[in-house]
Amino acid sequence: MAPGATGRFDADPSAYAEYLRTPLGRLRCELAWRNLERELPRPRAIPPRALDLGAGTGELALRLADAGWSVTLVDGSPRMLDQADQAARARGLSHRIACRTLDLDARGEVSGLEAGAYDLVLCHNVLEYLTSPEAILRTARAVLAPGGRVSLVVRNRTGEVLKRLLVGEDPDATLGLLAARHAREDLYGLELRLLDPGDIRALARTAGLRVIAERGVRVVADHLPGWASVGEDAFDRMLRLELRLGETEEFLAIARYVQLIAAVAPATE
Q1: Which domains does the chain have, with CATH numbers?
Q2: Of 137, 197, 249, 251, which one has the fewest beta carbons inside 10 Å?
Q3: From first to last of its 269 residues, what are the pLDDT tens digits of the chain?
Q4: Strand 49-53 vs strand 70-75: parallel, antiparallel, or unpaired?
């Protein structure tokens, strides 16, 4: 987490858990999961191993565990991890879940993780909060097994600008976000780094990773008020629409979040 972020998240993890139960929160998780499913690596062993960096309350980690993966959840917030552990117990998945409290905002690589051990590394909605996103990507690269994959979900600068304009914020102030390095998010009021897909590709490349797939997450759902109150059928229809739009290059550019799947770059790159 960014400086001060660990304490804020740890002070009230229920706010984040509640957000994930909202239609937009559910949609973000479901889209990230569907995109990830397409790119899951062939496991080297049974059970395959995954590492969730910045796991929070463990929504995607629990889905992986339910699918037979052994998942290590890492976060700077003990209370977030407590909620993940409780959810794992309630679903009978404790034997596939391990939780570790570690500082993800260290300027060097995160210590105490086994090198080359994980078939999959998740780093969702984390890079934008870190002082050094380069360090966490170096960690992801170091712990990745041969043939493994890294999944990144990051708030998209262009999507941030578009949303603020459409809700009526001042055009001049909003335009400044196109050049700004940081903004403030709504849920906890934390400062976050503004990135776009090109920035993320460059960070991945510096860490020795090569992006092999890109998807937009929540392209239009944030801008269509009312759909979420109509019921589960409306959610399913929005999910189908978002999956289609998210794989289209033109719409990916304006998505609220972007998801990039990466692998170890060849030695020649």
Answers
A1: 5-264 (3.40.50.150)
A2: 249
A3: 343 444 555 557 788 888 888 999 999 999 999 999 999 988 777 899 999 999 999 999 999 999 999 999 999 999 999 999 999 999 999 999 999 999 888 666 777 899 999 999 999 999 999 988 999 999 999 999 999 999 999 999 999 889 888 988 888 888 888 887 777 777 666 788 889 999 999 999 999 999 999 999 999 999 998 887 767 889 999 999 999 999 999 999 999 999 999 999 886 65
A4: parallel
